[in-house]
Amino acid sequence: MQKLMKNLNEENKKTMKKYRFFYHYSHQNRKMSIHFKKQCMIVDNIVCNVACQTKWNKTQPNLVMQGFCKEVIIKDNIGYINN
Fold first, then answer.
1. Domain map (residue ranges) of the chain
2. Parallel/antiparallel/unpaired status of strands 63-69 and 78-82
3. Strand, coil or helix: what is 10?
4. Strands (DSSP E) found in the chain
5. pLDDT tens across 3-38, in order?
6. Neighbours of 28 (CB within 10 A)
7. Which of 10, 59, 66, 81 has the fewest CB atoms inside 10 Å of its own CB, making it the most exposed?
């Protein structure tokens, strides 16, 4: 039974697709903004548990942090970016 559950969990992890995310400081809201799956989420703080890189834009926002993740969870107005 445990092997079956372990195999199902491994299959679910393999099938979960990673999506592009990026986050930046929003001057208008004076908070952080997370963009994931065509949604913009305004949060007070961000905990990023995946690798990300900087991206410089010629227009605002000038500096954006971007990467790939499987999910973004909002809890107590804190955004958790997870694999």
1. 17-82
2. unpaired
3. helix
4. 19-26, 31-36, 39-43, 45-48, 52-56, 63-69, 71-75, 78-82
5. 444 444 555 555 689 999 999 999 999 999 999 999
6. 7
7. 59
